[in-house]
Design a protein that fits this description.
Blueprint (H helix, E strand, L loop, with lengths): L1 E4 L5 E4 L5 H12 L15 H12 L4 H9 L2 H14 L5 H12 L14
Antiparallel strand pairs: 1-2
Length: 118
């Protein structure tokens, strides 16, 4: 579960579904002494971070809130959103989660943390 503080003082709580592949990615990052759940030791965003951002964008979380929560630049979040839009519409929830997972594991290191990020 994520609790995101929105710019206007509101809060949004989102349950992010993680499957075995994403959980294995979390374990691998911690085994390799990663900096956090969202950042690996080379300061690249992890597949879990990309999945969380994609899922939150689907739920209507603002780019600014995601940028602050994950600690990435706005352009990184916008880039992920463009990738998602290029993939097209998917109505079925399971197919959507599979698509988001595929996009999350496609690589692309992401930007370094922004000042004030976590």
């Amino acid at each position: 579960m994520l609790s995101l503080n929105l710019a206007k003082g509101g809060m949004k709580i989102i349950r992010v579904p993680l499957n075995l592949r994403l959980i294995a990615s979390i374990r691998e990052n911690y085994t390799h002494r990663a900096l956090s759940l969202y950042w690996d030791a080379a300061e690249r965003i992890t597949p879990v971070a990309r999945f969380v951002m994609l899922f939150c964008l689907e739920q209507g979380v603002p780019v600014g809130a995601l940028s602050r929560y994950i600690g990435v630049s706005h352009s990184t979040v916008h880039r992920l959103r463009r990738k998602r839009k290029q993939a097209g519409d998917i109505a079925h929830r399971d197919a959507l989660l599979e698509l988001l997972e595929r996009l999350a594991f496609e690589g692309g290191g992401g930007s370094r943390r922004v000042p004030g990020g976590i």
